[in-house]
Amino acid sequence: MLARFVAAGRGLAAAHAAGLAHRDFKPANVLLDANGVLVADFGLAAPAADSGDRAPGARAASPGEASAIVGTPAYMAPEQAAGHVVDARADQHSFCISLWEGLHGERPTQAATGHASGDPGVPVVPADRRALPAGCSPTSPAASRQRASAAGPR
Amino acid sequence: MIGDVLGQGGMGWSTGPAIPSSTARWRLKVVAARGGRTRERLLAEARVLARGAPGDHPVYDVGPAADGVYIAMPLVEGGTLADCLAAGRRP
Q1: Which tens digits make up the pLDDT trace of A121-132?
Q2: Could you say which of B10, B56, B81 has the minimum Cβ distance to residue A32?
Q3: Rounded to two decimals, what is the model's pTM?
Q4: What is the pLDDT of residue A95?
Q5: Do the Cβ atoms of B39 and B69 come closer than 8 Å?
Q6: How far apart are CA B3 and CA A153, in angstroms?
Q7: Candidates A37, A70, A101, A154, partner chain B, best to mutate (most B CBs within 10 A)
Q8: Which residues of A lie closer than 8 Å to B, measured between beta carbons?
Q9: What residues form DSSP beta bridges with A114?
C-alpha cells in the first residue's frame, strides 16, 4: 500500500516538474494496473500560481486570473478551499490527506485540517494517531509542505 | 465511432473504448470549458500531459472539442487506490 503511495507521489512530482498542478489529487484519482500506478484525471488542473515563494516547477498564471474553487473538499488544502490560485503545494496537502487515510483507514478530522472538509461523515482520529512526518501535517503552512516535497521519496 | 458515455460530472464526460469491437483499449474524455481563455489554458495543459511523465496517466491526443477540450487516453481497468483502501478496511 505504501509503495503505491510512493509511486503516486512520484507521478505527482513529475507533473509538478512539468509545471502542472493537479488540484484534485485523491486515492480515487490514482489508477492501478498491471504495470504500476498512474496518477489520472488532471482535468481540473490549472496553471500553478505565480508567487514569491514559487514551488519547484511552478509557472505563472495569467495576470489577474481568478480561480474557481474546484476539487474535492475532503482532500482540499485551506488555500484552495478559500478560492486562492493554487500550486503544487495544494497537491501536497491532498497527498498528505490521502496518505493519512491510507495509514489510518480514515481521513483526518475537520479540527485537524483547520477548515471545513464538507464531509460530515469524517470520523474522529484519536489524538495518539495524529502524528505524521514533519512537513506533512494537514495543518502545516504551504511553505513547509514545499519542503516536504523537496525531501520526498527518491 | 465513439463508445458509451462512462461518466459525466461537473468537469465534462468520458466514454468507453472508441471502437468497442476492437482490441484498442482507450477512452475519450471531454473537459468542459466555458470561455476561450479557459479552453486555451486546458489545451495547453493537456499538451503538457501528452508529452508524458513517468507515473502519470498517458495521454494519446488532445484537441479542441465543441464544448471544451478532448483528451484521448488508454483505458486503465485495474481499479483505483481508493478501491484498494476500501478493500483493506473490510473485515
Answers
A1: 444 444 444 445
A2: B81
A3: 0.71
A4: 95
A5: yes
A6: 39
A7: A37
A8: 1, 4-5, 7-8, 10-12, 14-15, 17-20, 26-34, 36-47, 62, 70, 98, 101-102, 105
A9: none
